[in-house]
Write a structure and sequence with these properties.
mainly alpha
Amino acid sequence: MAIQVLCAGAFVASLAMSVLGLQRSGTSWQLREALEISASMGLVIGSVFGMRSVLVARRSQRQAEEALRSASGAFASVVNEKFERWKLTKAEFEVAWLVIKGFSTRETAELRGTSEGTIKSQCNSIYRKVGVTGRAQLLSLIVEDLLLD
């Protein structure tokens, strides 16, 4: 990038000097041509390095996104295994996921098309099967188990 800025500056300075009529009489045309060729080569080299940097950054981004997808899939897989081990019913399974995602009792009831009382009852059943007393302990247990696995 620095090479490109320097070379572009040389071109702009040369153009400004020509437009404003500030040409130095002591500069030979050979020196001027050599400077312009050097500046052109610098711009090309800078462009090549810039494109290489973009390609490397894109590759790194794809790798990071792939790792995140893998981690997300692994998280879901581990949590699903825990739910199966705790013998949650299908409804409890769905409610437990919504609890983990942070939905409130009201939001969970709306999403599932049931009453808040039903969701509270299902949550209590989940907590009893897992051996915790509430949402915070359920989430804490899952996170703790993931960190130890």
